Structures are given as structure tokens and as C-alpha cells.
Amino acid sequence: MKVILFSTLLVTTGLQAQLRSPGIPAKDQKITNAQADQIFKALRAVNFEAKEVVYPIYSGRERVAYGISIGDGKLLTKASEIISARALFTVDRAKEAMAAQILGIYAEHDLAVLKVPGLKAPAAKWADAETLNEGAFLASVRSDGEAQAMGVLSVRERSIKSTDQGFLGVRMDRNEAGKGVRVENVERDSAAAAAGIRPGDVITMIEGKKVKGFYELSTRLRRLSKGEQPEIELLRDNKSMKVKPILKGREVQENEPRRLQRMDRMSGSQSRVREDFGNVLQSDMELEANHAGLPVVDLEGRIVGMVIARAGRISTLILPGDDIAKTLKAEPEPYVPAPRTDRRPNSPAEDRRARMKRELEMMRRTMEHLQRELDRE
Amino acid sequence: MMIKKLVPILVLSMAALLPAAPKVESLGDLKKLEGQVKKVVRENTGATVSLVSPNIGASGSGVIVSSDGLILTAAHVVEGSQVMTVIFPDGRQEKALVLGANYTRDAAMVKLVGDGPWPFAEVGESKSLEVGDFVVAMGHPKGYDPTRRPPVRFGRIMTKRPLDFIMTDCTVVGGDSGGPLFDLKGRVVGIHSNIGSDRQVNNHAGLSGYKASWENMLAGKSWGVLGGDRRDPNRPVMGLNLKKAETGLVVDEVPKAGPAFAAGFQPGDVVISIAGEKVTEVAKLSEIFVDFLPGDKVEVNFVRKDQKLNKTVTLARLGDIYRNQRR
Fold this sequence. Notes:
The structure holds two protein chains of two kinds. Chain A has helices spanning 26-43, 48-51, 79-82, 191-194, 214-222, 258-265, 321-328, 348-376; strands spanning 3-4, 7-8, 54-59, 62-71, 74-78, 88-91, 97-99, 101-106, 111-115, 137-141, 147-158, 166-167, 170-172, 181-186, 202-206, 209-210, 232-236, 239-243, 248-249, 280-283, 295-297, 303-310, 316-320, 333-334.
């Protein structure tokens, strides 16, 4: 399958090249495989600290995630990957299985703390990730001291929580306007409506800076936070006027076009929770959903973060080490399993659907497992 | 006998001397490589732009390659548009006009309207790339996002493909189309084109292909078909039906409506080279013609009755020859 990389924002163009997907010739694959082996060997020099603190987390026969030791027999892991899994356990360095219980969660970061009675492991030393620049080399490290994946820092620390971004509540004309951006529509109860912005107004400046078009204005707004009050200058009936709307937060995540979702889906597994993090690093390291919880090191061997989500073909999200250290200073919220009794009884059809869905999911996981085994050969 | 034995040994030792995939054997090597990657990113982020078609509403990427604002992108990004909105990593927006495109190469050019000077990246070559060479990919995946600069991806050349396409394990996705692939010196060596479901299959149109189509694209010409199509009626042809024989590519038929007939070609002629390129396979012809348009002239060297000759052929549209034949 071959997919053209066009990102269709509004409409589908239906463009797709019809060449067959090519394989990589064996002689070329041999060269790149040998090269990868070299790189991973060289990486062992930076993995020594991280390998001591990482533990696999199993539910039954399946590894669902990894956890990082935070001392006192506790492991930090990704909450949404383990919360509904039964009979959690880890395996210590003597290959002994040790049961793990959920002690509490930090819901905002999708983190969970597991208690593993009897586990003796040093606590991870978290390093600052703010100093990392785009292109910095990163590795996610397993307990055997090997890198699971190597990649670069694709995007520096940022919030991907859309509800934090400033939202004015207008629909803007996307055409090249030149002098400013024409307001086409004003949403009810929006920041714009409250400030008296009307359809037909042409926004020319925001915070003293000229805006030529839709993208400049929306960039400025999204880089502001909700609650901020930017001064907006606009033209109405050829008269210039100023307004100061109190920005609201973006309410709904814009849905991605299906074509883009498909490109991510076909490129390996994705974490169920992979959006709306308040502060994350983005890397191109190629992982699967059950690699969440792996420690991430830089070339100095510092633990600069923890893998928190596989978020699509090009993206692995990492919680910065300093943020984790800060989070751990507060006690986690106690974990209360969701009550199951007050659920409305299912109809036989719904039961059947649910069972089929579960079985499909199990088959998918089995296939992924087999694929991984095959890849390892 | 001695010589015959020596030859393969010589060839082998020669091969051992050829540059192999770059080696990374120590932490020191890794740190050096990291430094090079960071430098490429630092120097070229500003030239990596997002391109949005205002009338279609779809977005891709592009890279500025001259201070007066010439942008290289993918042909499928500009298809159906005359004007593009260019969004810089800092959020500034500018207007650009679509120049030309070679769809078979998925190559296109766009030009910023303003005078500049604009930030730009150096242009390199893709022909000299080897399997295993390190590369850096940038672009605006899933469209322009004001919360980030163009995400950086790092990888290697996995294989080289026909028509100067290169495959890397730099993962790219929708919206990256038209974005730049850099070598470690920060030169643009490829433009993101398409992907397969395997994460190692990321295809980029090589810069050597862009260079071969450069003047025609700059002059505003658009030709070819995405993915290539031998039935494209606009494809330039000589009107020579060739078949492979022991002596070389032998002329089988010369359709009367075609330019080769007008130039005086006859069945039995053996074609040696076209436009300076030696041809021994019929498939090679479509590769040679990928940078030509109907109306362009090509010189053909051939042998007729042990005599070396050459003739100039003015290329015609495939559709014109067949239509005339049917009459």
C-alpha cells in the first residue's frame, strides 16, 4: 500500500499514486541492519543508569507496559494501560514474579504508582529536559540494558492540551485578505461575542502586531492561554476600533480527517490515551503502545523522561523528567475502581457485540505478539 | 587462466575499498553525529514551510531554496492550485504562486511573491547518496501547528529506487508531503512524497530528479502523471517501437504518424543512445523521457548496416500518434 502524504484539512482530494509498495532489497537491508546493530551497541554506554530502574509490567502472559522504580518498592507507569488489567505483576532481576497493586494515580498525567512489596530497586534520578534541543539523540532503555528504540527529539517541551489554548470563537475568512482577517461568523457565548465582535468586522491587529491573514491570527490566539485579554484592533464600516476579549479555552478537539487517522493506524499500535498532555516532549523513536513506561535517556545517560504514549506513525510522547519529579512530590490520588454494579443490563445483542469486540481485540494482540516474535527472529 | 582467476579477486578487493555505510562504533561517534543533526535542524528550520491551498483547503510542506523565495515541494501538493499560502514556522503567512511540476517525479516549484530575502536551504544531490547514509527529515505533519516548530525525524537511506526516488526510515505522514530531506551537511537531497504501511517505507523524490526537470518547472510547465502511467496521452514519445535483440535495441516498427518516421528511421536500425544516454533496455526509455515534454528535441545515435548515424527527433504526444493511426 502506498499513501500520498497530503494532509487534507477540509476536503478530500482523492489523490493517490498507484505504484505498488516496494520491498527493500535484501542486500540493502543487510547493510542497514548491520549499521543499526552498531548504533545499538554504541548506545549501551548510555543505558547503564536507566536499566537499573526499569521493570516490565505483566497482566497474565502479556506485557502491558513498563514501570520505573521511584524507591520504597514503588513503580511509576502509564495509568490507562494498566488500570483495567488484572493480576498485575513484575519480574525482578532474579526472574521472580512479584505481584503489584495500584497505589494511586496522577490522573492529569495519566500516571499510576504501583506498590510491589519486597521489590528492592534504586529510585530513578530524574533529569531536566528543558535544555534539550531539537535533533538531540534519545534512547528508550529496557532492563537488559539494550535500547528498545533510538530516536531524536522532534519537538521540544510544549502543551498539547487544546483546552489551554486561547479561543476567540469566530469563524474567519481563510482567503488572502491582505489588510486583515474578515470575521464570517461569531459563536454564541464566545469571547468574541462578549467583546462585541460582529460578522463583517476585519481584524487588523492583535497585541499591537499586524495580522495579514487567518493563519497569523489563529497562531497568535493559540499561543495565548485562556483567560488572557489581548487587545484586538478591527475595522468596522471603515472605522478603526479596539476590543479586549477575555479568551476562553478551546472546547473540543478538532477531529482529524479519516485519511490521516488511517496513516497512523496502519503504522503500528497507538496508546488509548495519547492526547491532551500539559507538557510533553515528542520523539520519532519507533515504539508500540505497550512500551509506555520506558525510561528515556540522552547521550549523557541522564533519565530525561518517561515514554507516556505512542501517538501515531511519527510520534512518541515523553513526560519530561523534571515534571515527573515535581509531580511525585505530591501524593497520588487514591485509586478507586469504577463501580460495575450500577450499569444498565445489556441486551443480548449488545452482549454479543461486546464479546466479539473483546475476541477481536485479543486476536489483534495475539497477531501483534506473533509479528513481534517474527521480527525478533 | 591465471588472469581469469585474478579478475574476480580484484573486483572484490575494489568493492571493499568503496565507501560503505557510515560507521557509528562508539559513544563519541554518536555524539559527533548528534552534533551534525542538531546543526542541520538549527540552520534549516526557518526554511521549512507549510503550504496551504486556499481554494482546496489541503496542506502540505515545502522548503525554500533561494533567497528570492523559490520553494521546492511535491507535485501532488500543488495539484489544482495556482496560489498557495505559505506559513513559516513562526506563524507568519505569505503568498506564493505555483510555477511548474513534473508529476511523474512528484516534483513541483512554487515562488514566494514578496521580494525577500527569505531564509533558505542549500540544494544537494540524491544520486551520490548511498544506502545507510544518515538523513534528517522535517515538515509540517498534519498541517501547520502553532504550538511547535517543524518536527525533526532522523534516519537512513534504506534503498534507492527508480526515477531518483529514495526510501528512508525517517517516518513521515500526511502534511509532510513536499517537506525536505537533508543530508548531514544540511543540503536538501529529497522531498517527501509517499509512504507504505511499514514504518521503514518513506519515499522521497530525489533532488537529482528535480535538477533534471529544473528549467521546465521554473518556466511554469506542468507534465507527467503521479505514479507514472505509460498510457498518459501527454507522454512525449519518438514514435519508435523497439525490441530487445542480441545486437541491442532494434527498431521493430515506425508508426507513420510519429516524428521518428518523419526523421527517417527504418525498421532494423539499432538504437545506441538517446539524448546522450546509452540505452540497452526498453524500460530505460521512459526514464529518459521523464524530464522531456512533447516538442523537445532529442538526438538519437543508431547503427544502420554497420554505419554509425545520428538524427534529431522532435518528441510528439503519445495521444496524437495513436489518434492519427486510428484514422
